[in-house]
Amino acid sequence: MTNLPGPGPTAPASSGHAPASKTLRDGGTIQPVREILWGPSTGVRKYETSDELPSDLRKLIVKLMVVQADTEFASIQQHRPWLDHAPTLEDRWIEARIIADEARHGLQACRILRDFGEEGQMWIDELLAKKEGEHKLDAFNMKFDAWADVGAFTCLVDRVGVYQLRAFQECSYGPLARAMPLMLSEEQLHLNFGANVLRRMVREGSKYAGTPEEAQTAVRRWYPRALDMFGHSKSETSRKAIEYGLKRWTNEEARERFVSETNPILQGMGLEVPSADFDRRIP
Ligand SMILES: [Fe+2]
Ligand SMILES: [Fe+2]
User: Fold this and answer.
1) What's the whole-number average pLDDT of the chain?
2) Is the pTM of this model over 0.85?
3) Is the dihedral of CA 185, 189, 192, 198 positive or negative?
4) Which ligand approaches the C-alpha of residue 154 most closely?
5) To bridge 152 with a disulfide, which of 146, 213, 218, 271 should be the other Cys (CB 3.0-4.6 Å)?
6) From ligand 1's centre to the CA of 220, what distance in Å?
């Protein structure tokens, strides 16, 4: 796995709690912990059921899970046509695997929503009825017109997904925190696959699939949508989420971390990285 930065700046400088907190701060293997690790409630037991949640936090978790599930189900719709059209047998198999993983992630987010009773079920019904083009985030309403789009999407958009999930890692809501490790390891496969597709397109060109120019066009198409996915720089919701111990980073901090990880990867392949404000819709 690419070395991601350690816990966010809101993590306590010294909590004096279980060794797991220290492990987290040092960026080591993360063991499940029962206490809230950052924000004003540091050291207090995590929330384990939906009825323990303060109403603001409850609303926030429902909102974030709806967006999470929406992206998972949307990406299945985007990948589906490539099950039969990916260039190699291995690529078709990985497409099938990605679709199965995204379905499982959608299910996992919906299981969390189900714990919110009737309200959660209403959202699940709505999510399952959504068609292509009706999703919340722009990146999930765009078709994969070429194989390069599959590569750029999985390399860039799935990588944003990893940052979103890492922001929830060991968060204050136990059921959500426990869903993270498996989802993260599956997402890692997706983004490595995406980087590999782009790399091969640049190196091998039509011997593999497409051309280096197609890879570059796809990067220009998806990079700004990936940056937009982090949300507004001055988002009040992201500030609140940190305070509740739910998310580690503000939108802007996560976006900056993504940029410093991703740009060298693309440049290392010989691809040009668009500027951070190119074609952006969400400032
Ligand atoms: Fe996913
Ligand atoms: Fe994914």
Assistant:
1) 91
2) yes
3) negative
4) 2
5) 218
6) 22
